Amino acid sequence: MNISLLLYIGFGGFLGAISRFLIAGFVQKQFSVLFPIGTLSVNIIGSFIIGFAFMFFQNVIEPQYKALVMTGFLGALTTFSTFSLENVSMLQDGDYKRVILNIFLNVTLTLGSTISAIAIFKKLYI
Description:
126 residues; mainly alpha; 5 helices; 87% helix
């Protein structure tokens, strides 16, 4: 394994984890709802960025930069492990409507965000 590649991934992860903490906390505080909108926001943002990055790195850029952004930064930014835990907690509280809403919004909006980013990239660069 290439140690410099691991360092690129680690640095990206460092930036992604800090970004997730700051963005999710800020958004959650702004909306102060009893819904994990902070997690939803970073999942949407991360899904958009990964769609754009996928197109960008497909044809251009050195592999270490792809690893830094896609594996490191976006791997740490998006929060599906947190998403799972939040849903389990809501299930345990018997809050089935919020669980269904949370799953629906995360799945549809993140997929839509990735599709949008790919379409925007193609319109701008291809």
